[in-house]
Specification:
5-stranded antiparallel sheet; mainly beta; 6-stranded mixed sheet; 17 strands; globular; 0% helix
């Protein structure tokens, strides 16, 4: 079954101080995959929790990453095999009240409800024009979902070739784009933008669960929130 976008919703706190960012109005069918991309001020402290009104705690897709030049943390979460929600409320809580926090969330049909669906992830901080996550990566199979989280210091970018904008939080400068591929094609989550400080994060998600070979049977699923781990990307 092919992956399709079911629904998307976003919230941008802008200059309002808060200890959370709350996305509302996301339509979710039973069995959907939910993905969320976020940014918040790096004086906002630790993440306390990431959850919604029916599923409980989410799992980390890309760990919280610090871009000290921009002054922001950013990352991605996901929940596999969601319960049905006509209008989900998804909340990211963090320690300190800060402005310029944003989150974009999506629900997807056609993704396996059990097993490891995360293929590859990649991220990079930079200061150039036209951000990307690094060297091109090729998905392990056809039909994968590519989801990208970009956060910026000053610029509002344009989505990359083949990508569709799905989060456009212009006050806090957090943007999300996606590409549901037909054939596995190398990509690095590109944006079109002039020179700025930025972080670009990319995840590949398969429609089917991966079968682990014997030498891979030590794989452990990503830990759920809460977490206080931080990755600094140079």
């Amino acid at each position: 079954m092919a992956i399709t976008l079911h629904s998307n919703a976003a919230t941008d706190n802008g200059s309002t101080h808060a200890t959370s960012v709350v996305v509302t109005g996301l339509a979710v069918s039973s069995g959907d995959l939910i993905t969320c991309q976020y940014v918040y001020n790096d004086t906002g402290g630790a993440i306390i929790s990431m959850s919604d009104t029916i599923n409980g705690a989410y799992s980390i897709l890309i760990p919280r990453t610090d871009n000290s030049t921009v002054g922001n943390y950013g990352g991605m979460y996901y929940f596999q095999n969601s319960g049905s929600q006509a209008s989900a409320t998804i909340t990211l809580h963090y320690t300190n009240s800060e402005p310029f926090t944003a989150m974009s969330c999506q629900s997807w049909t056609g993704v396996a409800t059990t097993g490891n669906i995360i293929d590859k992830t990649q991220q990079q901080n930079g200061t150039t024009s036209n951000p990307a996550t690094g060297s091109n990566l090729t998905p392990s199979g056809n039909g994968e979902l590519i989801i990208v989280n970009g956060f910026f210091d000053f610029q509002t970018p344009t989505q990359g070739t083949n990508y569709t904008l799905v989060g456009n939080n212009t006050a806090s400068l957090q943007f999300s784009e996606y590409w549901i591929q037909t054939s596995a094609t190398a990509t690095n989550g590109p944006w079109t933008a002039t020179t700025d400080n930025w972080t670009d994060q990319m995840a590949f998600i398969s429609s089917g669960a991966f079968t682990l070979t014997p030498e891979e049977d030590f794989w452990v699923a990503p830990a759920p929130a809460p977490t206080d781990s931080v990755i600094t990307v140079f």
